Amino acid sequence: MSTPDDVGARPRSGMALAQLVGTALASAHGADSGDAVEVRAITDAMVRLLIGTPMRSDGKLTIVSLAAEAGLRNNKLTGLKDLFYALVKARDPLPEVESETAQARAAKQQQDLAQVRAERDDLRTQLQLMAQIVQVLEVENHRLKETNRNLEKQLADHAKVPDLTRRRRS
Question: Can you give the pTM of this predicted structure?
């Protein structure tokens, strides 16, 4: 049985890793140094982007968005760029671009499914019509066979009548 902590464990582990690395790098640079503040801003921005709650950027999982989210220039991210991309790759949910593609594919599949269902319904209607036509044709065929039997019987009855004109000549 899963606990609330198990739900979304991979994204949380990515966030935890980003925070852990950020804390380690900030402490390595000294708590009050400018580098430590930048590292902390970058890792906080990573976390916000990874959980999908951007404050200063478009929310895309790119270095440009990360820099905007952190409020820094792109060149300040060179040391953490590989970490960011590794965290993005390790994410459980699909990135936005892939999820948009998946959404488009799902919409296309829904359209295809609706079209197939409409074709199926049309074919069912045609099948019912064909079944009625076959039934009518069977009834007509049966009537024609009865009529044919009656005519054959009448012809046979006429054949039993002697031809009196032939007897007189002989």
Answer: 0.42
